[in-house]
Predict the 3D structure of the following.
Amino acid sequence: MTIILENPVRRNTVKFSILFRRDNLFRISINLSEYSSIMAKDTILLVGASGQIGSELTMLLRERFGGANVVAADIKSPLPEVVESGPFEYLNVLDTANYAGILEKHKVTQIYNMAAMLSATGEKYPLKAWELNMDGLFNTLELSIIHGIKKIYWPSSIAVFGPTTPVQDTPQTTIMEPNTIYGISKQAGERLCEWYNQKKGVDVRSLRYPGIISYKSEPGGGTTDYAVDIYFKAKREGKYTSFLDKETCLPMMYMPDAIRATVELMESPADALSIRSSYNVAAMSFSPEMVSNSIKKQIPDFEISYEPDYRQKIADAWPQSIDDSTARTDWNWKPHYDLDSMTLDMLKNVK
Ligand code: NAD
């Protein structure tokens, strides 16, 4: 009898045979080389692997696909756990020759391009932000066609929305007039992704991340960085001065949910995906005052003060909450963490 074994992660199959014997025992025979080559078929390149999201995403992908099958790349040194668990390449995403060489060398089949300049830093260096965010994506899309890449992941952001966008339950499709260079680059990037999918058949997938909160690596210069710093200062100093005003409510997500959302989107069947620009995804929305109250449940003496700076203007143009019903319908997206469960985990883990 021949049985077909399906690998639901890679959506491929391997055949094996069972020989029944007269003494009611049976022998299973699997061609191990065929099995391992099929089960470990994809090689992933993750550009921006030393960043806040990239470093944790690298580790999750290595857990799922094996360390050797996930090549981390960046212009910055990676975390020790990234170096120790698999290959690392120095790669400037703007250097197409080096990029092409790495795709060839590792026989890459999937790319996650996480390299970008974020909102707050982008306002200080607008030309550099535009060049990195746009040319980095262009290079990824064009090289993918040349090198036959099967799937690409590229993150967008809630920064694609602007002051004219409805602020509550911001829909998947709505008015988008971003007013930061970062938001403009992400919106143009979304249009590029959809164009390359529809006109060139590139299987590119994307999420509009809200502010991402984590404790493993430093945030990279975004407007929601306060929501990471506040936990470190609460633990170390018992007080924090917020650069956003106390009632500025923004959509946020805990890192384990963000990287799980990313991998779940990438593992979804292509024909289930109705959005090829970028999906809205949501988990929670809170203000500095709300996160401070959540911390006070664990550290009653915690004190917060407010000194809004230039980032307040950026935050004021962003949505307060996001409607992610399309992601929930298309690929069953569901967050696991809310504000209080995230606070408990953050305070347990930050040093
Ligand atoms: P980050 O700044 O922490 O990491 C970006 C990484 O890209 C860094 O390690 C940096 O060294 C690397 N990089 C910069 N220039 C490069 C180049 N020329 N070539 C190769 N690598 C380069 O950012 P992050 O927070 O991890 O964000 C990752 C992605 O997610 C970005 O596209 C960002 O826009 C998006 N995003 C992040 C958030 C968030 O809250 N962190 C929210 C929305 C969207």
